[in-house]
């Protein structure tokens, strides 16, 4: 009996989905020479997390350790198993680092890590949305391009910008493109990266996100689904965790000097649910409406979504753009996937490969219901019957022009 292994087994019984714990047990089992059980635990880890590099590395080590499981206390067999793992090129220190990254990705201070990107796209890659680009230019780009005027007028890039609009219209892509335009790193944080059932951990994750952004400066910190992270505290009376998360966001957003070189962007589909304190001056005091793509943007999205696919000649992208008024970018990308699948299935049935044609695309468009409609109906109700502090001026004008109010 090995007390350490028994303790780890009991811990896994209590938390069977804990992949890092299983990987750690694999290491101990291999050191003790229990190769068969190590393989079983590594296989279970891979089944739970198929893309986890640490789980795959653990299985590699277990497979390299030999088929026979030595008896307990057989030191020479244990050494041989460990040597076999080393011969296979397995680095347990690197595996532990991978486990740490998987368990807590926001603690990594390495700006080149998987969670902090260096985007290659810029605003020039964003089709249409000229008003959004102008707003971003005024908020971030113009002051940075003109440091002398910035000093003259005492203008500092502080606070944040809140993007709102229907789902699937490219808010995350715009944030990533802004980072590319600035030559900055990009750190995207969502509710899955922050919210935790244990007391105090969610607030700690917020602190870590801002700390990593500061270490990676210049950096665009993108807070996705800010209506969940920064929900109105009046709606979270029964959730101490959510109220504390909002309070921590307020503290971090007020760190002007500490946040120098950190450009905070946020996105939401429900701006009316964001706590008002987060939208006061110095925080998310600037808002921009990201609408469904206009005709020029829709044409660009079609071209991008179909790039690299076999297409028949003479496809009229302008016509496709006209047929998709009210579609989000995600709707268009989905229609292109549908059309491609139809062409592929037809090729399988006939045994002759054929390109994606205009008819495939038209059929796919007609089978797609725009996802922006329900959001615009909800927005209309807020604009007509809710309290508007001036945040939704753009939205009101759009709904009027679209005859939805």
UniProtKB/TrEMBL annotation:
Keyword ATP-binding listed: yes
SUPFAM superfamilies: P-loop containing nucleoside triphosphate hydrolases, TPR-like
Keywords per UniProt: ATP-binding, Nucleotide-binding
Cross-referenced SMART domains: AAA (SM00382)
PROSITE patterns: AAA
Pfam families: AAA, AAA_lid_3, TPR_19
UniProt xrefs under InterPro entries: AAA+_ATPase (IPR003593), AAA_ATPase_domain (IPR050168), AAA_lid_3 (IPR041569), ATPase_AAA_core (IPR003959), ATPase_AAA_CS (IPR003960), P-loop_NTPase (IPR027417), TPR-like_helical_dom_sf (IPR011990)
GO molecular function annotations of the record: ATP binding
Domain AAA+ ATPase: 157-294
Similarity remark: Belongs to the AAA ATPase family.
Name this polypeptide is given: ATP-binding protein
Source organism: Microbacterium candidum
